Amino acid sequence: MKIAYTGLNLPQGKIKYNDRIFVGLAEKFQPAKVSPYYFEFLPDDYESADVIAIADESVLDLLILDMEKIENRLSRTEDASEKGVLGKCLAHLEDEKLICDLSLENTERAIITALRLLSFTPALVYTETSPDVNIVCRDGMEKAGMMFFYTVGKQEVHAWLVEKGTDAVTCAGKIHSDLARGFVKAELVRCEDMMTAHNMQDARSKKLTKLVDRDYVIPMNSILDIRFNV
Q: Between the CA of residue 78 and those of 83, 86, 139, 157, what are the distances in Å?
């Protein structure tokens, strides 16, 4: 996940997320390889960001850029429905509010997505100019509707970032395209339950695991073992 920031004392570049669940799993399995999740912090690079983190005193500068985009589009469009959405967004911006916090219908969202308004990107506003990096990462995931799932074993413990509401086969594809292509079942166990078992087989014997189909929505903080046949 890429986090653009302005007016905040944050490091630049890739930063390892201090994930207590991942740390606990790594300590438990002692794998040959660990793959924690790294967030990427980009100063002022709004266009390529998944999330924006911005100082409260800098928010107006961001909103003005969006106001200019909307006013320019309003001067050129003849579409009544588009004008209505743009007017709604402009009024929201003039109240010094971010577009990402405006309730929009799907058709309205499509119009705004095409216009590429900067404050439509999930945005975090901080009054403290030196926020904790880990807290910014956590807040960014929450604002963008993202979550982790994990794969574990003696070879590797790996943290994977996906959207909340992601199904089992999509999670499988995140790990490797072959797992999605040959998907049969996913076996999952809650991270907290795994901490009470020796390994996946022990969790299975304790009836802590669950076999699910491809369209099953994976809960946050689950450990997945994908069964596939290619």
A: 8, 12, 39, 54
Common-topology check for domains 2-26+37-126 and 165-228:
no
> Which of 11, 8, 22, 85 is CA-nearest to residue 52?
8
For domain 165-228, the CATH class is: alpha beta
Residues 6+ apart with CB under 8 A from 201: none
Which tokens is 122 given? 């999930």
Give the Cα separation of 15 and 11 in Å (integer): 8
Q: Where are the domains of the chain?
A: 2-26+37-126, 165-228
- C-alpha 170/C-alpha 168 separation (Å) is 5
Looking at the DSSP bridge assignments, the partners of residue 54 are 6, 125
CATH second-level architecture of 2-26+37-126? Orthogonal Bundle (1.10)
pLDDT in single tens digits along all 230 residues of the chain:
999 999 999 999 999 999 999 999 999 999 999 999 999 999 999 999 999 999 999 999 999 999 999 999 999 999 998 999 999 999 999 999 999 999 999 999 999 998 999 999 999 999 999 999 999 999 999 999 999 999 999 999 999 999 999 999 999 999 999 999 999 999 999 999 999 999 999 999 999 999 999 999 999 999 999 999 97
